């Protein structure tokens, strides 16, 4: 079983006058996403560890993270979403997608970035491939997210509690969810 992995993470603050730009995410695609996160206490690092332990190849799609700010400039969001969709299409027939989205990102004219990215993923993967999404506990879970994801998993927000269990080293975030829903 091969699993595509991706992370596009930001918590928007729509009261902030500071807009978010493409470069604020420092996005990387393909193998560079693995190189950035392998061995790190991040959601992607947890995905990589869990898949490695299960002897399942990780197929890296992208990794992008931006600090909290206002809505993302629309053309920059479109560029990021296009990059995600294009790279996902390059991954050869994954059996599943693990996607870290946080669940509270907005762009100009897009209140539900997570739902929009899931729609991109479904366009590429079709309806049958499982898509499991990790979200912050305060994610704004929408109908678009719930209908397009196979499972939504809420994880604790502090890195030390998400990714490390005492005595066990790093754990996959999905191994210790605070809440989850699946269809
Ligand atoms: Zn958050």
Strands, helices and their partners?
Layout: E1 3-9, E2 28-29, H1 31-37, H2 43-53, E3 58-65, H3 74-90, E4 96-102, H4 113-125, E5 131-136, H5 143-148, E6 151-155, H6 159-163, E7 164-165, E8 169-170, E9 179-182
Parallel strand pairs: 1-3, 1-4, 4-5, 5-6
Antiparallel strand pairs: 2-3, 6-9, 7-8
The structure holds zinc ion (ZN).
Structure description:
This protein has 183 residues and is of the alpha/beta class. It has a single domain, classed as 3-Layer(aba) Sandwich (Rossmann fold). The protein has helices spanning 31-37, 43-53, 74-90, 113-125, 143-148, 159-163; strands at residues 3-9, 28-29, 58-65, 96-102, 131-136, 151-155, 164-165, 169-170, 179-182. Strands 2-3-1-4-5-6-9 form a seven-stranded mixed β-sheet, sandwiched between helices. It has a two-stranded antiparallel ribbon with strand order 7-8. Helix 3 (74-90) runs parallel beside helix 4 (113-125). The chain is globular. Bound molecules: zinc ion. Zinc ion binds next to loops.
